[in-house]
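To close the chapter, one final illustration. This time we ask the reader to focus less on the individual chains and more on the assembly as a whole: which components sit near each other, and how the overall shape emerges from the parts.
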Amino acid sequence: MRYPKRRGRLSVPGRKVGLATAAILLATTVAACGGGQNDSAPKAPATIPELTKDPLTLSFIWFDWPPAHALEDFANAEYAKERPNVTVKVKTVPNANWHDAMFTQFAAHKTDFDIPILDSQHIGEAVTNGNILDITDFVRQNIDVEAYNPYLLAAYGQFPQAETGKRDENASLYGLPLLGDTWTMIYRKDLIGDKPPQTWDEMISVAGKCQADNPGVSGLAFHQANGSDAAAVTYNTVNGVYGGNLWNPKTRKIDGVLNDAAGHEAMDVLVNKMKPLTAKGSGNWFIDEVNAAVAQGKACIAFNWIAASGGLLDPKQSTLGTTREEILGKLGFAALPSQKTNLVPLGGMGMHVSAYSPEANQAEALNFMKWFEQADIQKKWAAAGGVPSRTDALESPEFLNAAPFNQVYTDSVPRMRDMWNVPEYARLVDIENTNVNAALNGAKTPKEALDDIAKEQQSVLDAGSGKGGGGL
Amino acid sequence: MSDSAPLTSDQPGQVASATPPAPGRSRRLSDRGLAVAFTSPALLLLLAMSVFPLLWALYLSFTDYSATRGGQADFVGFGNYTAILASEQVHLRALTTLIYVVGAVTLQTVLGFAIAYLISRRTHGRGLLTTLFLVPMMLSPVVVGLFWRFMLDAQFGVINSMLGSLGLGQVEWLTGQRTALISLILVDTWQWTPFIMLIALAGLTAVPKYLYEAASIDRASEWFRFRTITLPLVWPLLLIAVLFRAIEAFRLFDLVYILTSGGPGVSTETLSFHVYKVAFLGFNTGTASAYGILMVLVVIVLTQLYLRYLNKLKED
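The assembled structure is written out below.
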């Protein structure tokens, strides 16, 4: 016997499946559409709510570098004395994924971290999207703001962005300093002498002579890669030193400001005077590659972030000596030379509280921040390898004696300048990175690259950040 | 008396349904019900994970939605599509992608077929050789990218070290405007030539031996045998391998991300890498969705043309 072939409408189970499918699609659509976003950051309570006595993991997110591991070890050793039920976990991602790893989770309105460690320039994007808590009231009641250089406090927490060197006391705060940082000049004392060059022009001249006198050793090593903010920070540093400006924050003008005479001079110095003194093929170097060149004795003068320089003194990672003292006999650390100005790049990051973290974790995060910003804890953080931000910690022997480059940081604090802290930051820095990298690698002339940066960045600012169209 | 199941049928698909339900099975569940019950989990998963995101991306592509900035997704019609098609930035990435696809796939096809042809002529060690050649294909592209990044480093890399020992100068593999794209093509070729080789080898093994024997009797030259027997019989299979590789190469992202980050400047930025930047740096979700949909359309259209050519080849 043969069973008849079914025709026509779906059977009852078929229809049920169809209905279920439609329901799932509808539910998924609702889920995808749901969760309308805040236009501004939600507020944290002024006082810390009651903390849980249950075991709790307080999660940070940062990129993978030595300070991230130092923070986890330090917090678990010290914070556990006050809050034994809390375990601190610092989740790390590759530097190039740092922004995306945080903001894709923010976009999903669900984060697996409680404390995002944002670069100072990320704050605008996070605040505008309502991703982090407004902690202005909390800071007012729990933090001694007078203990900080006002600009440091502003750079890691204030939005809208503070004017360079200042803090607007009426502006809202969204974060507190975690790790201060700036560039240090690393120079070979055995090749160029104990006294570091004082001006940028002198530095270039000394590097050129050193390269000529020492075959196989390049005059300079610095960040040139087109990932993260590598090449952009390099240009911004030279731009600042030669008296240029990145933009006019009041009029939101970049075109005509960045690419003025000073800007072009800076790009010319970078591409035509500094680049020829670097190693061949160094056009994609970032933090690790610069450190490797220094550790292997391949560079006379190098520039790198202070927080990433600790490994240079490790004899296991260096060919410059078998002991820390021997290495220090050859390596010197100094604040950046000045030229028309003495500006240096602001690095480092602040702690913020995820708006999507559970309430118990948000309370714990606020408690951690209050604990971390105490004077004695900041000194302990300095001794553990961190770079604190409180002035008393910066001037303490615990910090100044912990590493030979710490004095450089303390001296550099009044000289710092940041980039743009606006919601469009990620696109602005990408435009600058790719174009500076193109100029450094001969894909564009310096003039063409700088004019392209100014034009493209201006179009991003002019388009605004309200909608998701455009972006090409 | 019961009907017996026919041994042959002009509708082979119905033979299975001629078997009566097994004793003891619930009478409430028909064969069709069972089929639906078994297939529905996979179908629902497919709908939720593939079909819905595609439809959702299609919807977003007509809006100015941003995943982080949120708010109302306003309908912009074909605005995103026209902006993409008119953008010089996109044209530049399209050209880079085209050069990459043509360069990589051509090189892989020539090399893959040549290796397969040489292996097919061996009688001993063919299995071992084939296995060894397949190793690169088994590796993750990220791992491949990372170790080639070290090997191609201008200062510390083994490639330049070897060139130096031969008295040749240093090459800026990953930072030169021209060499960076060539490096990407070479690394992709290193990894994916085995894929073409494998398919070509399958085709070569399937060529009937008697054709070669007949050609030998006629004293046909090696080149004549290759041109008139080997190549025509392997060609359709080879074209399918080329199709797969071209689609893969068209959406290249991982190698670019690891090896060059699209540099120097944007000279090795492919379309996929550009979409990533639009989607996750600026979070311009509407534009990125339209960009992705356009890339899918390009692949579909080109594949259809290609398949028509293949069918025509078969008919001929």
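The CA atoms of residues 397 and 407 of chain A lie 10 Å apart. The domain at 56-181+347-417 of chain A is CATH 3.40.190.10 (D-Maltodextrin-Binding Protein; domain 2). With these observations in hand, you are ready for the problems at the end of the chapter.
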